[in-house]
Amino acid sequence: MTAFPSGEQLAPVLAAAPAADGEFVEITDADVDQVVELWRACGLTRPWNDPHLDIADARAGDTSTVLVARADGRVTASAMAGYDGHRGWLYYVAVAPGLRSTGLGRAAVVAAEAWLVARGARKIQLMVRTTNTDVLGFYGRLGYTDQECTVLGRWVESD
Description:
Elements (H helix, E strand, L loop, with lengths): L24 E2 L5 H10 L9 H9 L4 E8 L2 E10 L4 E8 L8 H15 L5 E3 L9 H6 L18
Parallel strand pairs: 4-5
Antiparallel strand pairs: 1-2, 2-3, 3-4
């Protein structure tokens, strides 16, 4: 799977982003364990969600992906993006703790937004856990606002 339907890679999104090549690209098999490690370091994983399965599911179709940035051969940031035919969604936006406040988080969001817009998304949403209040200001500075809705869900496990 490529970053855009035409096969071209995402263009550099922020010159200040400390990725080795200045780009966010789609995850490779070699990145998976590093991405899971990053998500765990950022407190994004939960026992009821298998991050390896989340990555595999995102990579399985044309409407979702995981984008990564690298520096010195290591994954430094990620953003999972999915398009449901109506809205784009962001998940697992993560930046290595030592690289926060460098512009890399903004670059991750911009790259994921570009990926979603290229697929037809006109609106992009994300969910923030109520316990993760530190990140609300970050998203607010990027133009994200409370959509005044309640997200409901239920598990539909099939055995």
